[in-house]
Amino acid sequence: MTLICLVIAVALWYVAYSLEGDARWLPDTAHSEEQPEWLRPAVDSPVRTDDIAASCAATEAELRASVESARICTVDSDCTLFDYGYPIECMTSVSRLQITPLRLAYRNYEQKCEFRVYYDCPTGGVERRPVCVNNKCSVTLNDPEVLTEETLDYLGIDR
Question: Domain range spanning residue 76?
Fold first, then answer.
């Protein structure tokens, strides 16, 4: 009985699939009226190759260098989290003494990079802690297995 139901279901799916066709995905040519602005596809903005883009790239490089040089520490309490998103790596830790100059450098980056990328650093259910490892601020995760599982689930990978 189960096999008969399965065969009928597949046959019905095939009939529906073959009758559907691509007509509903193609533009309707029967109407000669022009579509309103909000229905037309947006035009991609061109890639910036001018002085503004070069200035932005230089500012990003300076910011990354500032973050890297601000990671010096001797004990865990010297470090703090600095997760600002792009162009800084997620789960970054820096010296507490350097946090104000780094925030100013990030503000400079925001002002100079008109077309910057926005994203937040995902944290999930993981507790992040700044630590000092080999005189360099780093981040440790309370439960990295949770982050691994969430990442694999997001990517659709089964273990």
Answer: 51-120+128-140
